[in-house]
Structure formats: C-alpha cells, structure tokens
Amino acid sequence: MTTTDWITDIALLLVVFRQLREGRLDAKSYLIPLGIVAFVAHSYLNTVPTAGNDLVLIGTLVAVGAALGIAGGVYTRIRKNGTHLFIKAGAVSAALWVLGMGARMGFQLWVDHGGADDVGRFSVAHQITTQDAWVAAFVLMALTEVVTRLGTIYLRGRIALRERQGQEQEQEPTLDGRGAAVAADRTV
Length: 188
Prior knowledge:
Elements: H1 3-18, E1 23-24, H2 27-44, H3 54-74, E2 76-81, E3 84-89, H4 91-125, H5 131-170, H6 177-187
Antiparallel strand pairs: 1-3, 2-3
Helix pairs in contact: 1-2, 1-4, 2-5, 3-4, 3-5, 4-5
C-alpha cells in the first residue's frame, strides 16, 4: 500500500469517528465523505471490467456496500434542535462503517503480503478476469456505502424535519373562535 492508500483509507475511517460525537448535520457532513470517495474513484477506478464474472464480483460488493451504507444510516441518530439537525453515529453505525472500509483495507494488505496467489487462484476458478475487477469492486463498494449511508441520513433528516413541522402545527394555540372559522374557510 502506498502512502496515499493509507491516507485515504484512514481518512474514510475517521469520517465516522468524527460523528461519534454529536454534531450539526450540514453541508460538510455530506461533502467531506463524498469528496474522499470521489478522490478514491478518480485515482483508482480506471476501468470497470465486464468479461467473465467480473460484473458478478462487482455487483456483489456493490450490494454489500449498499447494505452496509443503508444500515449505517439507519443506526445513525438524527435529532432536530430548533431549526437544525444533529447526527451522532452509534456503535452499530461505526462498526458497520469500519467493517466496510476496513474490509477493503484488510483485503489490500492481505494481497500485498502473501495473499495474491490465493486471489489469483480464486479469480481463475471463478472467471474473474483481471485485478482491475477487484479494484473496481472494492472502490465501487466504498463509493456505494458512502452514498447510501448519506442518502439514508438525508432522507431520515427530511422526515425528522417534516414530522417536527407537523407537530408544531398541531400545537399552535387558538386565541379565540376566529382561528377555527379561518381554518374552516380554508377547507371549503
């Protein structure tokens, strides 16, 4: 692994650790992880091989990334305070993130330190045509995990805002009978 590999892998792992403390959900919450995976995709995703069972491998790891991302988004606490949303990654969310990002890093370390022959034999036996298929599969897995996690958090945040607005509207006091008359006029 190169220094750049280490830096990007560690940066991706630190993204969720940053969220172990509750913080405001803002543009940085989305842009930092998206920026990191965009850099990784640009740096490492040169091609998406389609021969043999390359797409099966890629599709499988993309599905794993999506499952980890959605589950991580579900297990991230979202609360509304005033007009702002706050998020906090829980233990399950952090564990899923580390599992997904750590699997890619662990696989790369294993291949670099003696596992290349095993991967080569597995690839031949399962008609995975090049090492580019493995690179594409893991990069797309990471990208999918980040995007689905952020998408889940975004949707849950919108729902939290909508629910809160609905509760606030239900709790509006009526000063006199005129409020009821105005409301009745709007329904006709």
